[in-house]
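Tokens help. Consider this.
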Amino acid sequence: MAGVYLSYPFCAQKCTYCNFASGVFPRDLEARYLEALKAELSPIHWPWIPETVYLGGGTPSRMAPEALTSILDLIPGKPWPEGTMEAAPGGITPALVNAWRAAGINRVSLGVQSFDARELARTGRKHDAETVAAEIAALRSAGLDNLNLDLIAGLPCQTLQSWTASLDWIERLEAPHVSVYMLEVDEDSRLGAEVLRLSGLQPATGTSVPAPRYSAADVPTEDAIADFYELAVERLAAMGIYRYEISNFARPGFESRHNLKYWRREPYLGFGADAHSFDGKTRWQNAETAREYVERFANGLSAIVERTPADSAEAFFLGLRLDSGVNADWSPYSDAVERLARQGLLQAQGCHLRLTPRGVLLSNEVFAEFI
């Protein structure tokens, strides 16, 4: 069954590691964005009743309850088997949680990223571990037990001791689902751009080199980040939280139904800035920024800026993200598969392929062979 993704790219602050098309924007743009989002949703002739709805961002938990309800009421099928909202710790109250539930939300993904005060301060986050614990208690008191907690391996100042402490908090809070992301270093985030500049991989613009501002020199080494990730795999498994996708771990029955659609190439419709859609044959993408998205609607234009046919190789670089691997005819890629198997990155048995533990750590190199 298909799903719906809603993009809400507005945040209270821009985190240093964030490379999404989200951030702090004027209030008037936020109001205009909500109207554009409703205008995009209203005329849809739904080809199916959605099974899942996912609100990502940004920080959609900042949305006023009445605005959230007005958006979700435009999507058929409520109550959906899974209605997820991404939320930032801080400011989650019992009244707000009850409003979310009434609007159709039954799963919350908390962008915790770390439980260490120094790591949080270096990245611009405003919460602390005690805030997360209190807000999880509020969510559970309202009957919202289906929770995900995000962690990032590789934040500035992160050590084995601090990473272990964050995993201890996961155990203490009995999270049913955990996402563990290894820090992405690219020029689309302030921290990533600074890391690249300090490493000499990205030249500084202008006549002088700007002083470091985002603690890039304190980012752990790639080997250390890989060690943190592997420790998380081991610790989470010991808690009964098993990896089912490279970055996602769950107790049995708590896997994200919506995100599984992406990796299994099931259909979904995306609405809002930078949202993507897929109908099984074609992919299309909306305007990337909130301002461009709003301006296209103001000028009577479609939000869609690009359509492309689905690539047959998707079955590999999406399906291989799953711990279960993928069943597909890999004969057109036999040379690459056999080479990757010799390198200890892939396991091949009949038509079934899956990443090895080492292949998980080098997954981007593996996926590149299928693009």
About this structure: The mean pLDDT is 92. The radius of gyration is 21 Å.
